[in-house]
């Protein structure tokens, strides 16, 4: 192991055998944490070649279970997001794509810090089970074309151990390590095609367009290298996506979108990604045709029916689609944040708005924190929107009456100026 650390520290390319030795030693526990951490830091500073990234990914993938989805007819298409504030995209998107007849077997994660996890949002629906057996998962995708669950079995155990060390050694934002972590789990999940939504900006993991582009290219290279259909979009996370931040609020917004009443930015992103997924799933010849199909199933109720079927079959209360406020947990207090001056909203710092929701109880500061599904923030203004003095910029949903600390944090991170224009939503695609 010392030789491997030395080789990478010196900027050399690791051999397949060296990477295999490392992954095996991590899983078995034969390599102590301090040596694993040393290699992670060497990778952080020296980077990895495309070949090294692909090998690391495949060795991590092979360290555990591999889902066999071959019994599900059709091209299985999945989507992954690098995460952000208000990013509930996967939930309505999966229902939209399933309504086109494309199987969407989605294995999602939980949130930590200011980014919300898809599983946490779905667990706001009373009874919804994110943990089901592999066989039930496969049978549900056959029946409904859709299931969203947490990782089953022992997927990529090497990644779990490496990720835990990256978190405490400040080596999280290494592109080769991020790419290996994401793709080892996605390849092990057994899908045929993958669209990756790489977020960029203040509320994202990758703050700059250059870093986001490098990560997107690394992810696509790995996917294509193992024979998967794979492409990425780089999308904005300088302000929250949609209007709702918080678990129940985001489920309610997802249902509104599936009824054709969702925020324009969220619908645009879903239709754009869905267009690519429709082509990958062989339901459309072009992305334009795919986007039109997505719009149709949103506005004719078929996507909502897909979502309702998934909720019912995973133990959730399907009445949530008809009466979300009656079924989902609701906060005791709704407190508006009035604008202190007139003008145009010029800044809404996404990660700090996420932190505000977390401090209300809607997110985790530590992995074992319990969530309050009912709390969060509902934006009434986005960047580029005009606002009058005293008009509500947003509403705070809280179970405590005094939210002065939250108001102060939000005022510090929302700016009103003489003029501003809305940011681009989709910067580029990597195919």
UniProtKB/TrEMBL annotation:
Annotated catalysed reactions: uridine + phosphate = alpha-D-ribose 1-phosphate + uracil; 2'-deoxyuridine + phosphate = 2-deoxy-alpha-D-ribose 1-phosphate + uracil; thymidine + phosphate = 2-deoxy-alpha-D-ribose 1-phosphate + thymine
Signal peptide coordinates: none
Assigned EC number: 2.4.2.2
Keywords associated with the record: Glycosyltransferase, Transferase
One BP term from GO: pyrimidine nucleoside metabolic process
InterPro entries assigned: Glycosyl_Trfase_fam3, Glycosyl_Trfase_fam3_N_dom, Glycosyl_Trfase_fam3_N_dom_sf, Nuc_phospho_transferase, PYNP-like_C_sf, PYNP_C, Pyrmidine_PPas_bac/euk, Pyrmidine_PPase_CS
Pyrimidine nucleoside phosphorylase C-terminal domain segment(s): 344-417
SMART domains linked to this entry: PYNP_C
GO molecular function, one term: thymidine phosphorylase activity
Claim: Acetylation is one of the keywords in the record: no
Cofactor section: K(+)
Top-level enzyme category: transferase
One annotated Gene Ontology cellular component of this protein: cytosol
Family: Belongs to the thymidine/pyrimidine-nucleoside phosphorylase family.
NCBIfam families, alphabetized: PRK05820.1, PRK06078.1, Y_phosphoryl
SUBUNIT field: Homodimer.
Entry function: Catalyzes phosphorolysis of the pyrimidine nucleosides uridine, thymidine and 2'-deoxyuridine with the formation of the corresponding pyrimidine base and ribose-1-phosphate.
This protein's name: Pyrimidine-nucleoside phosphorylase
Biological source species: Lentilactobacillus kisonensis DSM 19906 = JCM 15041
């Amino acid at each position: 192991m010392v030789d491997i650390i030395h080789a990478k520290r010196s900027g050399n390319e690791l051999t397949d055998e060296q990477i295999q030795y490392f992954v095996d030693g991590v899983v078995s526990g034969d390599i102590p944490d301090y040596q694993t951490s040393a290699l992670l830091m060497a990778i952080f500073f020296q980077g990895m070649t495309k070949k090294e990234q692909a090998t690391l990914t495949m060795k991590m993938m092979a360290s555990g279970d591999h889902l066999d989805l071959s019994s599900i007819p059709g091209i299985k298409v999945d989507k992954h997001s690098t995460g952000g504030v208000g990013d509930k995209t996967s939930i309505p998107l999966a229902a939209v794509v399933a309504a086109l007849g494309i199987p969407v077997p989605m294995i999602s994660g939980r949130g930590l810090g200011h980014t919300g996890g898809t599983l946490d949002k779905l667990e706001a629906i009373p009874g919804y089970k994110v943990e089901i057996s592999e066989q039930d998962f496969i049978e549900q995708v056959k029946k409904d074309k859709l299931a969203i669950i947490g990782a089953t079995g022992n997927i990529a155990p090497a990644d779990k151990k490496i990720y835990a060390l990256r978190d405490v050694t400040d080596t999280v934002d290494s592109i080769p390590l991020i790419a290996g972590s994401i793709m080892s789990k996605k390849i092990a999940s057994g899908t045929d095609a993958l669209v990756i939504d790489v977020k960029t900006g203040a509320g994202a993991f990758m703050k700059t367009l250059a870093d986001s582009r490098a990560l997107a290219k690394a992810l696509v290279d790995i996917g294509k290298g193992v024979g998967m259909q794979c492409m990425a979009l780089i999308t904005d996370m300088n302000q929250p996506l949609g209007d709702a931040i918080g678990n129940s609020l985001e489920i309610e917004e997802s249902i509104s979108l599936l009824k054709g009443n969702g925020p324009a930015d969220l619908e645009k992103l879903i239709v754009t990604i869905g267009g690519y997924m429709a082509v990958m799933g062989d339901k459309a010849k072009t992305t334009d045709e795919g986007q039109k199909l997505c719009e149709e199933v949103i506005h004719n109720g078929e996507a909502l029916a897909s979502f309702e079927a998934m909720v019912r079959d995973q133990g959730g209360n399907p009445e949530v689609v008809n009466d979300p406020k009656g079924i989902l947990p609701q906060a005791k207090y709704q407190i508006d944040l009035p604008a202190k001056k007139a003008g145009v909203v010029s800044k809404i710092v996404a990660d700090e708005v996420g932190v505000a929701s977390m401090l209300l109880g809607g997110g985790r500061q530590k992995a074992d924190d319990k969530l309050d599904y009912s709390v969060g923030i509902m934006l009434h203004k986005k960047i580029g929107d005009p606002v009058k003095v005293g008009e509500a910029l947003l509403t705070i949903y809280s179970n405590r009456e005094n939210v002065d600390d939250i108001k102060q944090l939000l005022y510090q991170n929302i700016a009103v100026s003489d003029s501003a224009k809305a940011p681009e939503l989709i910067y580029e695609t990597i195919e």
